[in-house]
Amino acid sequence: MLLNQQLVQQFVSQAVMYGDYEVEDAIYIQNQLIRILNASGIDNTSIATLNESATANEITQYWIQNAVDQNCIEDVLYQREIVEAQILDLITPRPSVVNREFNKAYKVSPEAATDYFYTLSKRNHYVKEDAIAHNINYDVETEYGDIEITINLSKPEKDAQQIAQAKEAPSSDYPQCALCVENEGYVGSVLQAARSNHRIVHLMLGNQRWAFQYSPYAYFNEHSIVLSESHVPMKINQQTFVNLLDFIDQFPHYFIGSNADIPVVGGSILSHNHYQSGKYVFPMDNAAEVENFKIVEYPSIQASTLNWPMSVIRLKSTKKNELIEAATYVMNQWNQYTDEAVAIRAYSNKGERHHTVTPIARYRHQQYELDIVLRDNQTSEQYPDGIFHPHKDVQHIKKENIGLIEVMGTAILPGRLKQELRQVKRYLLGESQLDIGVHQQWAEKMLQNYDISSSNVDQIVDNEVGYKFKRVLEDAGVFKNTDQGQQAFSRFINSL
């Protein structure tokens, strides 16, 4: 394989413009490209097939496909990703430079700093805008306001060859997990993601060292991860509230929240303490306040419940330290709270803790806001997956844990639904011989409830998926939106 000279020059110009290189480094960059792509040299005769405005990423994808076609690299997803990250690392400044430029931009404004880092992360294809664009997104109106549906199609699935290679590969504990700071610049393997072009910004939160990075497959605008520089387990305690509001002080244009810290109601990575943040307004942010109340110990704090399928207490104040204390008090009260009348139990007979919270922080209307979502991870014979987890009749749409993003009203649904919902629509339009598997009962109910035609089937199914997700959230709510449930919620509030 020979690299086209014109494309090499185009890439080199971008490496000089955006990376750590100067014009005199052109031959060095050229030779790095030859090495990474396993090419044999440079072609000075052919005409480039990409236009002169092609981005470094577009040139990279073109080279990778050529390298695969000519057997210079193996046609396996992880090998493609390793090569891509190594090439695009050439247009990415070193970590020290990224941090210096971020801090320099921060002196202009916090938003200028995140704009700098986010632009860099998109340019070097760490944030994969092209893949994210494949996601299916729409809103559904409910009695709680609009909720958001996302069918996640952005993350490529591993092929059979990669799965087989991963099975045979020796395990490694470096980096210890996908969130560890040791991923920055890590080449990757069949078991671990390619991270040569990955960068993090270092922060101090609560007098502790933390790191800030963007998510490659974002679920919302400027989706970012804030992670402990130490590989320590998820933990929701007073320090969590300190850290969240410290972050809000530094980046008031972002929200930040944490997944819960125990199984069933927790996130996908419980082994590494981390939060999620971004520049986004979620449906829950706009949920109406239902009942305003005072916490006896903290009378200056504004407290309210929300019109939301999950059980949320919103605390607001201009006084950060008092808000932290009030949030800690609410969390501690909940962690010890039992109400047998509605199957809420803080501990099992064996002493296992069942309660925690999902906290979300933001700065709005010149004051701090903390949303504290009450969580309970009990299981039972009737609900082996979780009493406050999506129940069996909605698991054909969503059966995974309900994490931070979904708590706030944005469904992250599995990519399998794209094809499955097409089949459901065909069935609804009369192709009754189709086997639609787990969606059969749902489809029959839609046929009973709607006069379905080719002109309305898409809207009906979209809405019904939204109603299923609403039910998912209601299942996860500890105090149900029924008379009995709301009376129980009032009992808890009275205990505060």
UniProtKB/TrEMBL annotation:
Keywords: Carbohydrate metabolism, Cytoplasm, Galactose metabolism, Nucleotidyltransferase, Transferase
Reactions catalysed: alpha-D-galactose 1-phosphate + UDP-alpha-D-glucose = alpha-D-glucose 1-phosphate + UDP-alpha-D-galactose
Enzyme Commission number(s): 2.7.7.12
Intracellular or extracellular location(s): Cytoplasm
Main subcellular location of this protein, as a coarse class: cytoplasm
Domain Galactose-1-phosphate uridyl transferase C-terminal: 249-443
Protein name from the UniProt record: Galactose-1-phosphate uridylyltransferase
Provenance organism: Staphylococcus succinus
